[in-house]
Model the fold of this input.
Amino acid sequence: MKIAVVGRGNVGGGLADLWEQASHEVKRIGREGDVSEAEAVVVAVPGGTIAEALNNVQGMEGKTVIDATNLAGVDPPEGFSSNAEFVKSRTNGPTAKSFNTNFAALYDRIGEARSKPSNLWCGDEEAREVVEQLNRDAGFEPIYAGPLENAALQENFLKLEFAINRGGLGRFFYRMAPPDQL
Ligand SMILES: NC(=O)c1ccc[n+]([C@@H]2O[C@H](COP(=O)([O-])OP(=O)(O)OC[C@H]3O[C@@H](n4cnc5c(N)ncnc54)[C@H](OP(=O)(O)O)[C@@H]3O)[C@@H](O)[C@H]2O)c1
Done:
């Protein structure tokens, strides 16, 4: 599949590595570029920069997009309950939220897990085939969490993960990934 990742940091760059290992063709975009050739676009920029990031990317119209952003201490753009719904309003194509609930620092250890790690996705039915394939090809078992209207719940999942962390399971997370790498 021809994939474009917008944001080539921990998440975008890490997923690009995994997908290339699975024989996909990945175009890595930083702050500007063109995704018109892509069959799937993954958005992995800082959550508060989503509007600015999309403004600087050409060829997004109608694309199947997976939004992997999290909202750490920021709100989604005004008028939207989630970044993923904002993305859809800008692209008007099949849209999903996924890859925002697993830590990039663990991408190179997916194969060590006792069972295949699950990864949540919610979004449009038209995006299902692409999202589920890209989950499996990255080493995850996709878990469907309902329509795109549930994206705000999935974006809030990060707060729950951090609450669990602070509640005592932190040492377990930290043993797997030091906090400065999460
Ligand atoms: N790290 C994780 O474990 C993790 C897990 C799940 C979800 N997330 C979410 O995924 C997103 C990406 O996280 P990350 O850890 O991959 O971040 P990161 O390493 O800092 O990478 C961010 C990327 O976004 C690009 N970018 C595009 N437009 C930008 C703008 N206007 N301002 C700043 N950067 C811009 C950056 O470009 P340059 O290369 O030019 O700097 C960079 O390539 C975030 O929303 C984060 O909350 C992170």
Q: What stands out?
A: Residues 151-176 form the longest helix (26 residues). Residues 174-179 have pLDDT under 50 and may be disordered. The chain is about 35% helix and 20% strand. The pocket of NAP is lined by residues 7-12, 30-31, 44-47, 49, 52-53, 68-70, 72, 100, 103-105, 182 (CB under 6 Å).
